[in-house]
Amino acid sequence: MNASATGSITRAEYCVIACAEAWRGDGEILASPMGAVPSAGARLARLTFAPDLLLTDGEATLVGPDGGAEGWLPYRRHLALVTGGRRHVMMGASQIDRFGNQNISCIGDWEQPSRQLLGVRGAPVNTLNNPVSYWIPRHSPRVFVSRVDMICGVGHDSARAAGPSATRFHRIPRVVSDLGVFDFATPDRSMRLASVHPGVTVDQVREATGFALTVPADVPYTRDPSPAELALIREVVDPARARDREVRS
């Protein structure tokens, strides 16, 4: 398949593929996806190119791609994986800026915010101790902002400012949105457009982003799922089509 022959592939399915790719090459590491599309991506990765990936039910059980129990993961062991860099989380973001700082706590000034969100939760520990990617199903200038209102997940500039202890395990492999895929493969570790999903233009991405992205001269399309991957997404990984409730057609 190629970009000119993908009429039957939905935007949500491209997002599943893009999320799955976040775990490529991770080896035996705990995947912690948050959201229907990242969860489908992690299960797809496990079934195809990342067979050593560990999946969790989010509580105390290691599970297979079908959700069946494979093992027990006590909390103390979970923390050991976190602090040792052996977990790769894919979180959401209410705001994210050009260096990958993430906000899920509040909108507006901390003293008197206009909106209260989830709270900081475990975002600082996640981002300083193990790889963290992000999934954003509604790409807009309200989410992709020049500067987050509060830093919850630590970005590249903030980690550098904190010194070597903050950068030992700090890594943001990718950001996936409903428009494209982004990384930080730039000299100053600011956000770069890595690919656009078929049907999306670079100008659309620029217009929906509240800061200046690094944009290569030739931006590729997000890769197509293979026929086998597409069948797994539709028949095994997400037959109930939860992905379509997160991503607009």
From TrEMBL:
<protein>
    <submittedName>
        <fullName>CoA-transferase</fullName>
    </submittedName>
</protein>
<comment type="similarity">
    <text>Belongs to the 3-oxoacid CoA-transferase subunit B family.</text>
</comment>
<dbReference type="Pfam" id="PF01144">
    <property type="entry name" value="CoA_trans"/>
</dbReference>
<dbReference type="InterPro" id="IPR004165">
    <property type="entry name" value="CoA_trans_fam_I"/>
</dbReference>
<dbReference type="InterPro" id="IPR037171">
    <property type="entry name" value="NagB/RpiA_transferase-like"/>
</dbReference>
